[in-house]
Amino acid sequence: MRSSEAIEIVSDLAAQQWGLFTAAQARAAGVAAFLLSRLVDQGVLLRIRHGVYASSSTPWSPALEVRAQWLALEPTVMAAGRRTGQDQGPVASHETAADLHGMGDVPSDTITFTTPQRRQTKQSDVRFHTATLTSGEIIFLEGLPVTTVARTLWDLAQAGHEPGHLSDMITDAITNQLTTKDELATALGTVAELFGATGNTVAAMRARLEELAPDPAAGEDPVARAVREAVAPLQQQIQELLSRLSSQAYLPEGWAGMSAAATSPANLESVVSPEIREMLKEAAASEAMSTTTLHPGTDPGVFNIAQDKLLSSRRGDARDQDADMGDDEDNHG
After folding, report:
1. Would you state the pLDDT for residue 167?
2. 234 and 194 fall within a common domain
């Protein structure tokens, strides 16, 4: 078989499995091991783990290593074929699942799976837990079976993780809308004390979740809340710009000392118009207003440049025009 034919075959395999394939899958498709080694030497393929390869164009990520190890656990079976079986099969769990979900920061040097039967490995960076998971405790993240957020937290709590780490993961999960408080309270009620709750009940767990991720203020209008959150960065920027300008230019009394209340999201639009926001940004960027006196104009939301500065600029323009006319006369004389 030519290298070009081998590349076509393994590329088709990789396209079905996150850019990965196993040596056993390639062999079943007619690609010998020595051809894989040759393609690695040529830079066409990368060896991710023992018996698992990737196209050199496959982007690396922590999830890629988990997927590669998952493929290596059943090297002859394609990823799509594993979801149709009746057996649970290996499921990414514990710290590995937390990382895949994006919950907390729990560093781990091992890739962890949960299997229904006891399983061992000689690889130091792979760990197995034995448990039978229900279908409701497994989700598929881009085709990879992973324990749900609730089951992942339950596993980590049972494994003895610090309550502080668990609390951070719960906050991340709720904030990022990976799950709901009702789901967590129901799933974790029997181990609620491990999360800092006052008792191992659903009600106690629900109360603990409210402490960790309180709901928005009761009665607050959703639209008002959205506006407040959206305007908050602009509010901070305006306050910083006013502070910088107060040290660069004369601001009439009442402007340099503008209070945080005056620039709160509720009052921001009435205090500072779009025009002044743009002017403030330009002034802070160029520092061209370091000697300019500013005062409110007839429009309360707009600053006007002082007349003496404007007249000075006009006199300068007139002198430049006289000089240009004199140059023209000299050139034509």
Report:
1. 87
2. no
